[in-house]
Design goal:
By secondary structure, this protein is of the alpha+beta class. Helix content is 36%, strand content 23%. It has 14 helices and 14 strands. It has helices at 15-30, 39-53, 61-68, 72-80, 86-101, 172-177, 189-206, 220-223, 226-234, 283-286, 356-362, 366-379, 390-413, 423-433; strands at residues 107-116, 126-130, 135-149, 152-161, 215-218, 238-243, 248-250, 256-257, 272-273, 281-282, 296-303, 306-321, 324-336, 343-348. Helix 2 packs across helix 3 (61-68), helix 2 packs across helix 13 and helix 3 packs across helix 4. The chain is globular.
Length: 442
């Protein structure tokens, strides 16, 4: 029975090992009891976790409740309306992720994920770009904070993005119907991402075993925001963010000056370039200037489509901000060996002495966050929720993060016996031993 559901090579798990999965789940759920105001709420959280991890393919509340032999409306109330404290559970979760995956040079990942929705009643729904379908669609978009180390990867925290239109007067009734906090104001996705990071840093101050990280990685949506990158630097962390090919830099720091006051009007305060012709150039234009020996070849990931081999160039540059010199940064250029026209550009505030192998490693961090979303959607109902409320979205995504981390925790614990075990296989093994509900025939 167990071997059939565990086709991974070198899988030496015994039936006793797999039976232990159920005890592990009960012990794991017990760790979150302090986060809930009432024991009944904690019991529902335990059931919801079992539903997300169970055999039901579509993880809606109705299907999970029926699979578990529970009342549908009670479970709907727990996830969508019950006022349990999300932040208390996230604090415990972050501490557990530190135990499972924590490494000094760990990486925090910021990315968004969209879910297509029907109708206009769900919180935050609007016609907006949805990455899961690659176009503008009626959808909800969440900003997510993930963590990756050599031990694995998982979600840490999430926040729903509300488009600007949701804050106008025409949406007032919809905000109230969805329970959007009255003091909530519009935030861009980079602002939400930075806030998630800042919250994680504050949580670390409360934890006996903080979640260690040295880096923050994000795509160009976030990397093109100087305020986002400056916020990371203010936390004492290094960022490695993708940027647009049109981003401008200097290869040397240009001289600037403040024009002399002529005795009339306001005194000049705005800096100007000493040499107006000393213009910044686009990062794209630098590619042709890099000699062949300056490129370094490396394999950055081994995926389902085979290895991704790229050439890298590393330049110390001065970022152009509004036409004036900004911080000195690393510019990393990545070129796909199989498709040289495929170029990616990155900024990093890492020190000038950082080993270049670290920057190469960071360029592959888009892959783990994509896998987190794939596993979440494919295995544990990341996008299967039907709740329409602000609170319901927050609760569901937190419980999905807890469920995903539990599977990662099992994989790490048993990696010596089953080093090639996937999240999919861990969940299959778990469902094979989860107790089935007993229904009252009366």
């Amino acid at each position: 029975q167990f071997i059939e559901t565990c086709p991974a090579p070198a899988c030496n798990l015994s039936g006793q090992d797999i039976e232990q999965f159920v005890e592990e789940l009960d012990s794991y759920a017990k760790l979150f009891e302090p986060a809930f105001g009432r024991r009944e709420q904690w019991q529902w959280s335990r059931l919801y976790l079992k539903g997300l991890l169970g055999p039901t393919q579509r993880k809606t509340v109705e299907r999970m409740a029926l699979e578990l032999g529970q009342n549908v409306r009670d479970m709907q109330h727990f996830v969508g309306q019950s006022p349990w404290r999300k932040e208390a559970a996230v604090l415990i979760h972050q501490g557990l992720v530190a135990q499972t995956l924590g490494e000094v040079d760990g990486v925090m990942l910021i990315d968004e994920s969209g879910v297509v929705k029907q109708g206009q009643d769900s919180v935050g729904v609007a016609a907006q770009y949805c990455g899961s379908v690659g176009k503008v669609a009626n959808s909800q978009v969440g900003v997510h904070l993930g963590y990756v180390s050599r031990q694995g990867y998982t979600l840490v925290d999430s926040q729903l993005f509300l488009p600007a239109e949701w804050f106008d007067e025409a949406h007032k009734e919809r905000r109230q119907a969805c329970g959007v906090p009255e003091d909530l104001t519009y935030q861009t996705k980079p602002e939400i991402g930075l806030e998630l990071l800042q919250a994680a840093v504050k949580r670390n101050e409360q934890l006996e075993e903080p979640l260690p990280f040295e880096w923050v990685a994000a795509d160009a949506l976030y990397g093109d925001s100087p305020a986002f990158r400056d916020g990371i630097a203010a936390l004492g962390k290094w960022y490695f963010t993708e940027i647009k090919s049109t981003s401008q830099v200097w290869l040397h720091r240009p001289e600037v000056y403040v024009p002399a006051w002529k005795g009339r009007g306001r005194r000049p305060t705005r800096l100007r370039l000493c040499q107006p012709t000393d213009k910044a150039v686009t990062v794209q234009s630098l590619v042709a200037q890099i000699p062949a020996p300056a490129w370094t070849r490396a394999t950055i990931k081994e995926g389902s489509k085979g290895p991704l081999v790229c050439d890298f160039a590393f330049l110390r540059v001065v970022e152009s901000r509004a036409g004036l010199p900004g911080p000195e940064l690393w510019l990393v250029i990545r070129r796909n060996v199989d498709n040289p026209a495929e170029l990616k550009f990155y900024f990093s505030n890492a020190s000038a002495e950082v080993p270049l192998t670290h920057l190469i490693r960071l360029s592959g961090m888009r892959w783990p966050v994509e896998i987190i979303f794939e596993e979440g959607k494919g295995e544990i109902g990341f996008d299967h929720y039907e709740t329409r409320s602000w609170l319901g979205w927050q609760h569901h995504l937190l419980l999905v993060a807890l469920a995903h981390h539990f599977l990662v925790r099992l994989r790490v614990k048993f990696k010596d016996k089953a080093p090639a075990l996937t999240i999919y296989q861990v969940r299959l093994l778990l469902t094979s031993v989860l107790p089935k509900p007993v229904f009252d025939a009366a």
